[in-house]
Design goal:
Blueprint lengths: L1 H18 L3 E14 L8 E15 L2 E15 L11 E16 L5 E19 L2 E3 L7 E12 L4 E10 L22 E12 L3
Antiparallel strand pairs: 1-2, 1-9, 2-3, 3-4, 4-5, 5-6, 5-7, 7-8, 8-9
């Protein structure tokens, strides 16, 4: 029910932004993700990352951008064919709202950075065929984004982004020797996103 209410608010807000003559871009990407702290390592979990960006110039060469994204994150254990072991796959899907600042002063490249809040909509742990939920996974995620878009044409761009959780995505202390962020143990989504942007206004 909370997800339905949140989605309705987001869609309404998006319609308001469109009505104010903001620019818009479609975003179609792929995530290569891992969860720092789960002891698996490697960007081995592949997932979709799709959405829309609404932007507006706030100062010469500077845009403020608001995004609505569906992002499939998590982690996956890679099997060694010579030494098979129990499988493990973590699937955490989020509805994300990034707020970005973009620099438009370069000819072909637009760098950007910003923060996001995300709502977990799918929580699945596949432990050697036994599927359930990840215990104590938080409902909300707060992330940091850093990336850039290379403009292939006037409308089409190639986008690369790195995203990292600012706070642990688990509500309880990690029992593993995970990474320390400012002296704390925890689990953190880390991912690279590669994809295309399509400008709807040009």
């Amino acid at each position: 029910m909370k997800n339905i209410i949140l989605l309705s608010v987001i869609l309404f807000y998006s319609q308001v932004l469109f009505a104010q003559d903001f620019g818009a871009e479609l975003l179609v990407s792929a995530n290569f993700s891992q969860v720092d702290g789960d002891q698996l390592g490697g960007y081995t979990k592949l997932g979709a990352n799709i959405g829309i960006q609404i932007n507006r110039e706030v100062k010469e060469d500077w845009d403020l951008a608001f995004e609505l994204r569906y992002s499939m994150k998590g982690a996956k254990k890679v099997q060694d064919p010579e030494n098979p072991s129990p499988t493990l796959k973590l699937s955490y899907d989020y509805l994300e709202l990034p707020l970005l600042i973009k620099y438009q002063g370069f000819d072909k490249i637009t760098p950007y950075s910003g923060l996001s809040v995300g709502v977990n909509v799918i929580n699945e742990r596949d432990d050697n065929g036994f599927v359930g939920e990840e215990t104590n996974l938080g409902f909300m995620e707060y992330g940091f984004h850093l990336g850039g878009t290379y403009h292939l044409t006037e409308k089409l761009g190639l986008d690369l982004r790195h995203t990292y959780s600012l706070l642990s995505i688990r509500n309880s202390p990690s029992l593993t020797n995970g990474p320390r962020l400012f002296g704390r143990n925890g689990w953190y989504n880390r991912l690279f996103t590669v994809g295309l942007t399509y400008d709807l206004d040009r």
